[in-house]
């Protein structure tokens, strides 16, 4: 689906592949404050992994206009929309890197890209089956299997420690990577954890990912708070984790 310019119900203009998905993400981020930014210091350094079309970056800049944002997005069309949105809204001190983040470097890793629902694009398409089955069961007249028609795209993968900014403090690390969250955290070296003051991420609890991530963060000195993701069906077992020192 090509990148197009839309107007959301709030009046916000932005580029996206899907207006309905962009509206959902806007409501999630701006309406429910899923990835909290309260308390960020002036000139905060924010790392946005799974930046998608840039709505979280827009949200951070709305609250902290002088924040320095380092964003990462591997899906080409989503990265294109991100760059257009940064230009559209005249945002400064935003740097996008077109790559995925993982435990180990890979020059060309496959991603499953859903043109009709691009925010669900993932390295782990098997984890999307629960979502597809639930939607198909609840809305049998709608063809969700076609909605999740997939294409394969490739992008490089880098460990997070290899691409983190060199600033002494990283105020906030946000992760929304459709199943790759544990891989991303594993790619942070011990020396870098001390620089990261707060972590916020969305996790679908498959294969005990939630417990593994909470344990990893606790072992590195964080206090983790877990709450259900407010706009996602409980059957999908999706949670928001906020971890602070």
UniProtKB/TrEMBL annotation:
Residues 48-223 form the Methyltransferase FkbM domain. One of its GO terms (molecular function) is methyltransferase activity. Pfam families: Methyltransf_21 (PF05050). GO terms for biological process: methylation. Keywords: Methyltransferase, Transferase. NCBIfam families: fkbM_fam. This is FkbM family methyltransferase. It comes from Micromonospora radicis.
């Amino acid at each position: 689906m090509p990148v197009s310019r839309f107007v959301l119900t709030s009046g916000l203009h932005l580029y996206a592949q899907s207006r309905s998905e962009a509206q959902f993400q806007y409501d999630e981020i701006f309406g429910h404050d899923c990835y909290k930014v309260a308390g960020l210091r002036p000139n905060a350094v924010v790392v946005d992994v799974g930046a998608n079309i840039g709505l979280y970056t827009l949200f951070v800049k709305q609250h902290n206009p002088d924040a320095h944002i380092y964003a990462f997005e591997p899906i080409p069309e989503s990265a294109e929309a991100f760059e257009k949105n940064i230009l559209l809204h005249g945002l400064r001190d935003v740097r996008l890197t077109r790559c995925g983040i993982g435990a180990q470097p890979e020059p060309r890793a496959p991603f499953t890209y859903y043109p009709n629902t691009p925010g669900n694009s993932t390295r782990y398409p098997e984890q999307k089956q629960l979502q597809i089955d639930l939607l198909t069961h609840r809305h049998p007249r709608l063809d969700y299997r076609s909605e999740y028609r997939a294409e394969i795209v490739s992008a490089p993968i880098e460990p997070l420690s290899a691409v983190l900014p060199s600033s002494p403090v990283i105020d906030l690390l946000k992760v929304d990577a459709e199943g790759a969250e544990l891989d991303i955290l594993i790619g942070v070296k011990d020396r870098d954890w001390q620089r990261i003051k707060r972590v916020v991420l969305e996790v679908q609890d498959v294969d005990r990912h939630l417990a593994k991530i909470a344990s990893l963060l606790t072992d590195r000195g964080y206090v983790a708070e877990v709450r259900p993701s407010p706009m996602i069906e409980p059957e999908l077992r999706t949670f928001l984790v906020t971890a602070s020192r």
